[in-house]
Write a structure and sequence with these properties.
alpha+beta; TATA-Binding Protein; nine-stranded antiparallel beta sheet; eight-stranded mixed beta sheet; 8 helices; 25 strands; 39% strand; YycH; Regulatory protein YycH domain-containing protein; YycH/YycI_2
Amino acid sequence: MKEKIKSWMLFLLILGSLVESYYLIYRLPGSDSAVLSESQYVKTDIMGPKEKVENLLYPDKMIIHMGEDKHTLFYPSSTFYNLILNRLKGRSFESFQRRSVQDFDWNKIRSENPGIELSFGAGIPVTLLQRVMQISPDSLFEGESIDRIWIYNIKNDSKAHAIFFSTRGDIVYEAAKADLTVQDVQQHVDFGKNLTPYTAVNGEYYVPEAAIPLVEVVMPAGMYTIEQMQSNLFFDAGSTRYIPEKDGSKIYTDSKRSLQVDQEQNWMSYSDPAALPDGDSTPAKDALEAVEFVNNHGGWNGTYRLAATEEGRQDRKVSFQQYYGAYPSGSYPIMSNPQLQYGVIHLELQQGTVSSYERSLMYMDEEKSEKTIVELSGGEALKQRLARIGSSLRVTDLTPAYMPTLTEEKLQLRPVWRVTLSDGSVLTLN
């Protein structure tokens, strides 16, 4: 009898130990902290394919100067944009000479000299640009970031001139040796003949002389789930716990990293303040690290362009801009706005390591899209509207773009003019 009692007591002790072990392994301290067992782990879902950094480096526009103060513009993925860019990628540039931007009469070059101007927005580090163009190594030049490349002919000069603009604003670099002939440049310029003419305004932006057609599209909007993002961002998705917020957002954490989801905006913010920095940071290396991070944590759900590598006091912000459209008509940036955050991926890096990652949880279902052709205004009507805006703050850029809106689970991309002002603010005209 005593042996049976001892056996039952031993069984109960073992059972209690197993129950206690279960709670230690599959529960976290604190209220509302249930976690998933291994059999319930969400498999890593790919939000999009991986991407090479080379495919994210391209100009946001091409400005074709035809002489006699005539100009036209080409945008990414359009027929002549692709043709010119692919040709320039195969040409070499070397023997750079550093010069002051004031050494040139840019207004005269713009109005009189046939040429091609590539705009890179906020700029691209030279060491990244070398991945897509044949730029010879140069110790002085390689530390720069470039926001424009201007290739042009001068009357009675037998060689083409290639100028690279530093983002610092006061310095340019001229390639003393450029694998381009005067005839090459003229052929590229001739692609702009018989296309919509643009007028240069203050040498800063260009206004079309006529309305330009763009595609307006309405399509179903898909949504990535919180479980998918947890699986993509946490080493062990089963170790996270949920913390409700008063503003309606949701926070998931494994006590080191956190994932905050704004359900109204369908926007996620991931933070890893405990990430160990490797101490090696440059604009180019941080951009490469940012691309690799997105590759390994979801992928790219569309076409993107490296938009900025901004340096802060203790970190660097890397942004990628999403584009919509395709060959041969062209593609244009999708604007994020206070009503709907969409179309951008933001990352912050500290000493070469990603500490913050933000993006939309929405994606486009293009297979069921409905498209119509609309026109963006041009000519005098647009010039007058821009002049009124410019009376208070100088207009520095004018670009066709898409404004996203979400209604009844459908995403609408509506063409607008994106107007950038001298203080960096942006507004839209439609």
